Amino acid sequence: MLSVSTNIPTREIIEEAHARIRPFIHKTSVLTSHTVNEISGAEVYFKCENLQKIGAFKIRGGMNAVLQLNEEERQKGVATHSSGNHAQAIAYAAREVGCKAYIVMPENAPEIKKKAVAGYGAEIIFCKPTLQAREEALNEVVERTGATFVHPFNNYHVIAGQATAAKELIEEIPDLDSILTPVGGGGLLSGTALSVHYFSPKTIVVAGEPEGAQDAYLSLQEGKIVSAPYIKTIADGLLTNLGDKTFPLIQKYVKSIVTVTDDEIIAAMRLVWERMKVVVEPSGVVPLAALLKEKEIFNGKKVGIIFSGGNVDLGNLPF
User: Fold this and answer.
1) Tryptophan synthase beta chain-like PALP domain spans which residues (predicted)?
2) Where is the domain boundary, 133, 149, 165?
3) 83 tagged catalytic
4) Based on the domain organization, do 163 and 139 belong to the same domain?
5) Are residues 43 and 78 in the same domain?
6) 239 and 187 in one domain?
7) What is the band of 3 on the pLDDT scale with cuts at 50, 70, 90?
8) Interacting residues of 228 by C-beta distance below 8 A, sequence separation 6+
9) Which listed residue, of 90, 249, 254, 260, carries a Cα 20 to 30 Å from 206's Cα?
10) What sections of the chain are H helices per DSSP?
């Protein structure tokens, strides 16, 4: 079954994933900012997955997973739970291959993301905003429909797809000293770490995480997956705990995780909007906030940052 692939993505698997999804995704731009370089003291290259189809990197992993469904699985459809960007990715991917998508979303998900999922033709099942409620609703859907569950991050097909963003960045901007991504469930971070390991082994991988959802930071400290003591952050895309597939990869290949406050996230978001003229959501600017917080670590270095998404609720801006 697709949902229980046990193969950690190899170099070849990531290359195959890239070839598979290439007709369905954008090769996103890499931007620079003289102002950011001056402020940070680093030479920074932004991989703009906020300009990706569906407005986020998640289309890469979702598309890679859905394209590997067999005919019987496609007939029964695909299901997932997500607060937004993965929901859109699976809904879009399912539409592209002509199968049904069942998406469990918390009732407090951003309005822009609800509308987008509905616009791609998926059936949305709303639930209370808890992981338990999500999983119960998802289990009911899978039982009722026989749909294949594609986990938002704890799935090697998804991780291989997410790895292609860093692969493209490395191919366009070689010899990066560091690559920074946000971390929620760890799909993008573990995929990035694998791409760096295979395609640019001298590069260091660092993650940014909100202080108000710092489970990944604490998990690395504890050596096991733990929950954050409290959850309160503007970065709504990063509220998930790590999984048993993402955590070991992060343990093995990620140098460190830098935590940032909501004020630091909002300041980074404002800087990007005002000076770079690109729309990036709070979760997407977390690695830039981390870079600006730890400037001395990256001073004089060549740094890649993945802007993970740009799906902002314009009726609810923080500034």
Assistant:
1) 22-309
2) 149
3) yes
4) no
5) no
6) yes
7) very low
8) 212, 213, 214, 215, 218
9) 90
10) 11-21, 34-40, 58-66, 71-76, 85-97, 111-119, 131-145, 156-172, 187-199, 215-222, 246-253, 262-271, 282-293, 295-298
Q: Of the listed 3, 33, 83, 195, which one is catalytic?
A: 83
Token pair 């760890």 is at which residue? Answer: 186
Residue 269 shares a structural domain with residue 166 = yes
Same domain, 141 and 269: no
Are 133 and 160 found together in one domain? Answer: no
C-alpha 139/C-alpha 146 separation (Å) is 10
- Residue-wise pLDDT for 93-146, tens only, equals 999 999 999 999 989 887 878 998 999 999 999 999 888 899 999 999 999 999
Other beta carbons less than 10 A from residue 92's beta carbon: 24
Q: Which CATH number belongs to the domain containing residue 301 in this structure?
A: 3.40.50.1100
Catalytic residue among 53, 58, 113, 245: 58
Q: How many domains does one find in the chain?
A: 2
Residue 76 tokens read as: 């029964």
Is the domain of 238 the same as that of 190? Answer: yes
Q: Which two tokens stand for residue 89?
A: 């990715």
Strands 148-149 and 78-81, bridge-based pairing: parallel
pLDDT tens digits for range 276-308: 999 999 999 999 999 999 999 999 999 999 999
| Structural domain range at position 267 | 2-56+156-316
Percent of the chain with pLDDT over 90: 87
58 classed as catalytic: yes
